[in-house]
Write a structure and sequence with these properties.
64% of the residues lie in helices and 3% in strands. Strands 1-2-3 form a 3-stranded antiparallel β-sheet. Strand 2 (178-180) and strand 3 form a beta hairpin. It is built from 13 helices and 3 strands.
Length: 267
C-alpha cells in the first residue's frame, strides 16, 4: 500500500473519532444513532483501496490519484455520518426516539399477540433505529427473483408463484421487492398476510408487522429463543447448529440481544 495513502487512512480514523467526540455533546443519543455506520465506513475504505490497487497496476504514478480519491470520499463519509447522527435536520433516531415513536403501541400489540415487548422494541432499533418516518429499501436481488417467478424462470419465492404476481407491472414488482415500515418487512410479505402493499407502509404498518412476526416465528419469541427469532427475521431461518450467524451484519443478533437488555431496564 502506498505509504501516503496508508498514512491518510490512519489520519481519517483519528478524524472520525475526534469528530464523534466533538459532536457528542450535541446529541445525547449520538452513539446510538451511529449503529451500523462504522461498517459503512469500512466498506467505503475497502472499495477505495481495491480501486486504488487496480489503478496502481495500470499506472505506477497512481499514488497522487489515490490520495485525492481518499480525501474526497472520506470527506463525503464524514458528512454522511454528520447527517445520519442527527446533527442536522434528519429524523429523530435512537433508543429514546424508539420509545417515543413506538413504545405505547408496541406494549399494546405485545399484549395482544403474546410477544415480548422488549424483543419487538429491539427489532425496531435493529431495523429502523427508532425513526418514525422510515424510508423503503429496494432489494435488487429480491426483485430479480420475483421477475424470474413472473416470467416462469423460477417456480416460486417463499410460496409466491407466477399466479400471485402475473398482472403486476414493474413498479408493483419493485414495491414487492422493497422493505417497508419499522420492521422493514419485504413488500411481498403482504401476499402472505392477505393485505395490500400500502398496509405495510401506512399507519397500521406496526400492527401488520407484529402480525407477521406472530405468524412466522412468534413461537420462538414466546419460548424465549430470542437469538433464533432475531436470526429468522433477518435470514428466514433459526441460528444454525454450528452457532455461526448467517446475517448480513454479523453483529445483528448480538446487537438485538443487547438492545433487549436496554429496554428491559428502561422501557
Amino acid at each position: 500500500m502506498h505509504k501516503n495513502v496508508s498514512g491518510f487512512l490512519y489520519s481519517e480514523n483519528v478524524a472520525i473519532f475526534a469528530f464523534c467526540k466533538t459532536y457528542m455533546a450535541m446529541s445525547k443519543n449520538f452513539f446510538e444513532t451511529l449503529v451500523g455506520k462504522i461498517n459503512y465506513l469500512k466498506r467505503v475504505k475497502t472499495s477505495i483501496m481495491v480501486y486504488y490497487k487496480r489503478q496502481k497496476k495500470k499506472n505506477k504514478g497512481a499514488g497522487a490519484f489515490g490520495i485525492i480519491l481518499v480525501v474526497i470520499v472520506s470527506a463525503a463519509a464524514l458528512f454522511g455520518i454528520w447527517k445520519l447522527a442527527g446533527c442536522s435536520n434528519t429524523p429523530e433516531m435512537g433508543f429514546d426516539a424508539a420509545i417515543k415513536n413506538y413504545g405505547s403501541e408496541i406494549k399494546f400489540l405485545a399484549k395482544q399477540f403474546d410477544l415480548d415487548p422488549n424483543f419487538l422494541m429491539a427489532l425496531v432499533m435493529l431495523e429502523c433505529s427508532g425513526r418514525k418516518d422510515v424510508p423503503a429499501r429496494f432489494e435488487p436481488g429480491v426483485y430479480n427473483k420475483l421477475k424470474e417467478v413472473q416470467e416462469h424462470r423460477r417456480a416460486s419465492l417463499e410460496s409466491i408463484t407466477e399466479i400471485d404476481i402475473a398482472d403486476a407491472n414493474d413498479d408493483a414488482i419493485r414495491n414487492l421487492a422493497s422493505s417497508w415500515g419499522p420492521f422493514q418487512l419485504m413488500g411481498y410479505k403482504c401476499l402472505h398476510l392477505g393485505i395490500k402493499i400500502k398496509d405495510l407502509r401506512g399507519n397500521r404498518s406496526l400492527y401488520y408487522g407484529v402480525m407477521w412476526i406472530d405468524k412466522t416465528y412468534g413461537d420462538y419469541v414466546r419460548k424465549g429463543r430470542f437469538e433464533d427469532a432475531f436470526h429468522i427475521h433477518n435470514t428466514g431461518r433459526p441460528v444454525p447448529k454450528s452457532g455461526k450467524y448467517l446475517t448480513y451484519d454479523p453483529k445483528y443478533v448480538p446487537n438485538g440481544m443487547s438492545y433487549m437488555q436496554y429496554f428491559k431496564e428502561h422501557f
